[in-house]
Amino acid sequence: HTLTLSISKLIKNLDFKPIATKPNAIYHDYTGVSFKSIFSIEGSCPCDVFISIHKGKHTRIIKENDIVDHLRLMKYQKKGIRQLYIRRSDRRKFVSYSANILDQFIADDFSKLNSAQIILDELVQQTLREIYRDGILDEESISSAFVIVYGYQKMLDVSIRSIAYLLQLAKEKPDYVRHSVYTSIFSILLANAIPNTPANVITLAGLGGLLHDIGMIKIPLNINELNPHLSLKEQIQLERHPQLGVDLLEQAFNCPKGLKKVIRDHHERWDGSGYPNNLSGENINYVARMVSIADYFNSIHRLKYKGKTISPSRIISMMREKNWFDPYLLDTFARLLRV
Questions:
Q1: Distance CA 296, CA 16 (A)
Q2: What is the C-alpha to C-alpha distance for residues 320 and 333, in angstroms, rounded to an integer?
Q3: Mean pLDDT of the chain
Q4: pLDDT value at position 116?
Q5: Does the pLDDT at position 332 exceed 90?
Q6: Among 2, 235, 249, 317, which is 20 to 30 Å from 165 by CA?
Q7: What is the pLDDT of residues 181-227, one digit of tens each?
Q8: pLDDT in tens, 47-94
Q9: Mapping DSSP to helix (H, G, I), strand (E, B) and coil, where does residue 285 land?
Q10: Among the listed residues 239, 206, 207, 244, the one whose alpha carbon sits nearest the alpha carbon of residue 225
Q11: Residue 57 CB: number of other CB atoms within 10 A?
């Protein structure tokens, strides 16, 4: 009971509303966004924004493409409005917009790092909602994930600030931020699901997931790891990105201990068929093995087969067939997804 009260208090203080155990059908067509995320928008809004004064009735206060009126938002806050809403159908559009704004903030003006952190917070929240909507995690699991991920994501803040100039290069890869956030979330959840995992290891898994592909910014734009038709020369270039990521981290100050090994090893495979060093089994960095599972799962989930996403259970089956992943960690990840 004490734990439940503590979690409820924590959620209340986080300024967002997690999915309830039994979602109210009245809010089925809307999803919450924070005031902070809308305040951070400079210029036109990517979608309609609503408030809910009376239960079940949503009133539009910002039109799509209208300039965000910050003074008006402040008036609503003074009236006691704590939550803003967008249509569920606009959620992916809002997430994509958030990812682009995050890149711009970091690339263009380091004085805006506070705003970048706000956007990253919102991107994490919206990504969790997408995970729920896509049926990857059920209601109970996603409610727990909100608490777990948001808590550890706040712990990543110091590290993100210390290497923010590296993230600015991510603007060259439009889908980089969203995939990285997905990988970070799944890495945190996997690490947390393993009994007695220290907090610093969970944080390292989250940061490793966020930065695992940073070396890709040094790879030509036309080379994509999801492309099965790369030439031998292109494949050789692609396989350099883990070491290139390590080289970039060498230039960073305050780089967390162990992060470079996570970045270096995240494409090594359990059977020794990975790169760059053909490591196998427990010779592969432990946290990198977690990030590898999260990275591969999300990469395949983003793909379409006959116009549809591949189900989590099918992806897990594919991963088990390959012998690329730590069997214990993969089984833990499957249980996490209830597959």
A1: 29
A2: 11
A3: 78
A4: 59
A5: yes
A6: 235
A7: 889 889 999 999 999 999 889 989 988 988 888 888 788 878 877 77
A8: 999 998 777 788 999 999 999 988 889 999 988 888 899 988 887 788
A9: coil
A10: 239
A11: 10
Beta pairing class for 304-305 and 308-309: antiparallel
* Alpha helix stretches (DSSP H) within 14-81: 35-39, 70-78
Q: Kindly state the tokens that stand for 255.
A: 């780089």
Amino acid at 239: E
User: Phi/psi at 338 (nearest 5 deg)?
Assistant: 60, 40
Tracing tokens 């100050």 back to the chain, one arrives at 253
**CB–CB of 241/219 below 8 Å?**
yes
The pairing of strands 84-87 and 304-305 is unpaired
Q: Which residues contact 71 (CB under 8 A, 6 or more apart)?
A: none
* Mean pLDDT of all residues in 254-261: 82
Residue 300 and residue 288: Cα distance in Å, rounded? 18
End-to-end CA distance of the chain: 29
Count CB-CB contacts under 10 A for residue 267.
25
CB 19 within 8 A of CB 129: yes
Nearest Cα to 256, choosing from 181, 198, 308, 205? 205
**Cα distance between residue 80 and residue 178, in whole Å:** 32
Which secondary structure element, helix H or strand E, spans residue 86, and what is its range?
strand 84-87
Amino acid at 251: Q
Q: Which of 241, 222, 19 is nearest to 130 (CA)?
A: 19
Q: Which two tokens stand for residue 81?
A: 């409005």
What does the alpha-carbon distance between residue 275 and residue 221 come to, in Å, rounded to a whole number?
20
Question: Which range is least confidently modeled, 123-127, 129-133, 168-172, 195-199?
Answer: 168-172
